[in-house]
Amino acid sequence: MNKKNLAVILFICIIFGLSVLRPNTAYACSCGNPGIEKRFELSSVVFTGTLISKDKDGGNIFSADKIWKGNLTDGYVFSGFYGICGTEFEVGNKYLIYTENLKGKESTSICNGNKLITEASKDIHALNQLTEPAWKNKSLLIIAFVFSIVILIIWRVKLRFYKRPLR
């Protein structure tokens, strides 16, 4: 066996050995991070609320404080049985919840972006911005315009008053 063949066989053995000996990383849930705007768009209901009860079947009853999108009539959100992708909530804690309607019931998982309210200030600020009426965004511009017109009128009146000849 020549040196060239030995080098090729040694290279193949090293690559094979590294692929076998290297531990493979497996992820049970691959969620990604679509961002708050995309989460809002993809969700059927987005709300903050306190978990008041839960059952052994993966159901949760929330008392909603603020709803940015959708309608959570009975407060029920299913969060169980997604394998490791499911999410657990603790009774008495307040959360920001993003749900999707699956087979007629609001459901959520670890990939939806749910957070304890203490960790959700950035999301809540962005949700408020997303859902703020369009006229509110323009209100400062309107106020500045009206203020400018008033100042211009006052200035013109003063100019006329001071330019009048004294009699």
Low-confidence stretches: none
> Cα distance, first to last residue?
123 Å
Q: What is the count of DSSP helices, taking H or I runs of 4+ residues?
A: 4
Query: Main beta sheet: strand number and arrangement?
Result: 6 strands, antiparallel
Alpha-beta content class: alpha+beta
Strand content: 15-25%
- The level 1 CATH classification of the domain at 36-131 is Mainly Beta
Count the E strands: 6
Do you know the CATH topology of the domain at 36-131? OB fold (Dihydrolipoamide Acetyltransferase, E2P)
What percent of the residues sit in helical stretches (DSSP H or I)?
Answer: 40-55%
The global form is flat
- Looking at how many chains there are and whether they match, the oligomeric state comes to single chain
Average predicted local confidence, pLDDT: 82
Query: Which CATH-level-2 architecture of the domain at 36-131?
Result: Beta Barrel
Order of helices and strands: HHEEEEEEHH
- As a whole number of angstroms, the C-alpha radius of gyration is 30 Å
Structure explained in plain terms:
With 167 residues, this protein is of the alpha+beta class. The chain contains 4 helices and 6 strands; from the N terminus they run ααββββββαα. It is flat, with a radius of gyration of 30 Å. The N and C termini lie far apart (123 Å).
